[in-house]
Amino acid sequence: MEASEVHNVLEGLRPLLVPIGDLNLDPENVRLHDERNLRAVRNSLETFGQHHPVVVQKDNMVVRIGNARLQSARDLGWTHIAALVVDEGRVEAMARAIADNRTGELSAWDFEGLGDQLTALTEEGFDTDLVGFSDFERQTEVEVETSQEPEEEDDESEEASPYSKKANSPVYEPKMASPPAVSDLYDDRKVRDLLAQIHAHALPLDVRAFLEVAAHRHAVLDFAKIAEFYAHAEAPVQRLMESSALVLIDMGSAIENGFVRLNDRLKKQFLEEMRSEDAE
Fold it and tell me: What is the Cα–Cα distance from 243 to 161, expressed in whole angstroms?
């Protein structure tokens, strides 16, 4: 094989090289890859080379693990890629693919350590975009905006951490004599239109169920009216609305339940300070 066909595959994987044209993307792949993800994979292949083989089901030569790598290698004009071909059935191949994706996402970043490493890379002149973290700063900020005005600080608090302030939760008080009608809380016309289109086709049950769930993403909620409805609702209904994050009544609970995202270090600091203030 000519050197030009090897591309940037690490030497230890070269005995596994196969023509890219012989491989097929997995039509059942449930892992979605947007352009940002694919760009990061392309950057990785160009910078570091291929250091993991794709895993291929021998039957029909379908890539079960490494679809993003295969697509990225194609985009880069590679003719060959390292592949581990496994002779197994559809169920085993499907389970292998799910396990590979799921086990990886069950881990978590040590954001403090990651920040230190990205800083070190930057100081050495390394472009952190090549490792997919050009927006790292954004990921360490609270990812919600509130309409609450910041509390006034006294002179002694000037050096306090900007993340140590306890956020005020909104107070929902009725502004109307009676609650708005439930039908006024949302607009589901787009949902109903999509459902009609879905039901007009003879689809497999699992596909139909998936598309029905996806269709409900297009419901538009009127949060001003929802807040008014909440203020008039009975306690059981209010608790269900809180659990669905339709209203935010407790910033600490919102963080613990994942409605507000902080990195692990800031989340721990925020909750500890809240509990300390509640105990006073």
Answer: 30
User: 275 pLDDT band (50/70/90 cuts)?
Assistant: low
Residue 161 φ/ψ, nearest 5 degrees: -65, 140
To 10 degrees, what angle do helices 264-279 and 111-123 make?
140
Question: Which residues share a beta bridge with 65?
Answer: 55
User: What's the whole-number average pLDDT of the chain?
Assistant: 79
pTM: 0.50
Whether residue 64 contacts residue 56, with contact meaning beta carbons closer than 8 Å, is answered with yes
Contact in structure between 24 and 53 (CB atoms under 8 Å) = no
Quote the CA–CA distance of 64 and 275 in Å, as a whole number.
47
Beta strands in 146-270 (DSSP E): 186-187, 220-221
C-alpha to C-alpha distance for 27 and 215, rounded to whole angstroms: 22
Q: Tell me how far apart the alpha carbons of residues 241 and 151 are, in angstroms, rounded to a whole number.
A: 27
The dihedral sign for the CA sequence 174, 176, 181, 187: negative
